[in-house]
Amino acid sequence: MLDTVAVRGYRSLRDIVLPLRQLTVVTGANGTGKSSLYRALRLLADCGRGDVIGSLAREGGLQSALWAGPEQLSGTRRTGKTEGTTRTRSISLEMGFAADDFGYLVDLGLPQMAGVQSAFARDPEIKREAVFAGPTPRPNSMLVRRGGPLAEARSEDGRGFDQLTRGLPAHRSVLAEFAHPGELPELAVVRDRLRAWRFYDGFRVDAGAPARRPQVGTRTPVLADDGSDLAAAIQTIIEAGFDDLQRAVADAFEGATVTVTVTDGLFDVALQQPGMLRPLRSAELSDGTLRFLLWAAALLSPSPPSLMVLNEPETSLHPELVRPLATLISSAARATQVLVVTHSQALLEGLGRAEGVELYKDCGETRIAGQTPLSAPPWDWGSR
User: Fold this and answer.
1) 278: number of CA atoms within 13 Å, CB side?
2) 317 φ, ψ (degrees, to nearest 5)
3) Contacts by residues 249-253 (CB-CB < 8 Å, ≥ 24 positions apart)
């Protein structure tokens, strides 16, 4: 389980250390940084896939994603005026997490020299990486460390480090290059964990949405981000023998049942409601009904990840569906760690025992309500 997620220098997240529990709910007013936190977690996951450089490029490049305020805000809070300060650190975007076994930290910065007449001069570089044991990335807890092109692994006697390479390209992660289970299993664990994180940020339910069209179906333990394989995912849940799906559908839609029809290899959802002579196909379902089925298929996955992140799952759902949705999320949290970003007080109340984290803005910076330097989880960014 993840204990801590830390982000420094990303949009409004000047320096935030977020504690996580089995089920964590992040709330806050519009503009307080909830979406920035969600996007930062996606970037961190992209490190495991080797796609963090491309993801930042799609956001407009590192410069557009960096914290835009002064490095220190003490003067702003004292005088009420925002003024530039003398920079003491390198320009960077840093992210990391600590779990109950291994943690990971990555430091992204501006390129020094992309190459003569290179068209990639705006690509960020990976300046620093670390895989560590324990709650915080301290020097004595490092298992693998990377600084620029140099990558090293802790020696077998634990007293020093053995060199892995002096020529690691700035756009390649140590996770992608050296995560071999037989040699450096800790790197493989971290890489596979990041790759397995799942993110769901709403689903299309308009007339042309992929979930409304019959699709060729294969066994689908993980619902696609766009919900295009909804019918196959539901059939996989049904054949796995999970009863939670039918209970959730019956609870949400007054005794309805969901099945899957298969015609010439094409899978389609069928929802049978009491009083109806025939089931409704996915193309006939209301937007709210289809969206609820999509969330049910995502949350009841037979192959749960180590972390599932949900961004405003209550969006466009009827208020009466929020309680069944909360039941689904609580059920998922028994098998996997879940982080929910939401505006909905009803959803927060429905989740009951969830750890609530409220964000607010102070001088443009996202902060955690009630958190002090003494109550924040331990974290050490280190330096380049």
Assistant:
1) 6
2) -95, 145
3) 249/293, 249/296, 251/324, 251/327, 252/292, 252/321, 252/324, 253/289
Give per-residue pLDDT as tens, 312-367. 999 889 999 999 999 999 999 999 999 999 988 899 999 987 888 999 998 889 99
What span, in angstroms and rounded, lies between the C-alpha atoms of 379 and 138?
9
Contact 364, 13 (CB under 8 A): no
Question: Alpha carbon of 87 to those of 27, 63, 77, 258: distances in Å?
Answer: 32, 16, 18, 59
Cα three-residue angle 313-27-351, rounded to 5 degrees: 60
Whole-prediction pTM value? Answer: 0.91
**Contact in structure between 297 and 230 (CB atoms under 8 Å):** yes
Residue-range domain boundaries for the chain? 2-197+360-368, 207-286
Question: Using CA atoms in the order 200, 201, 206, 208, what is the torsion angle rounded to 10 degrees?
Answer: -60
Query: For residue 70, is pLDDT > 80?
Result: no
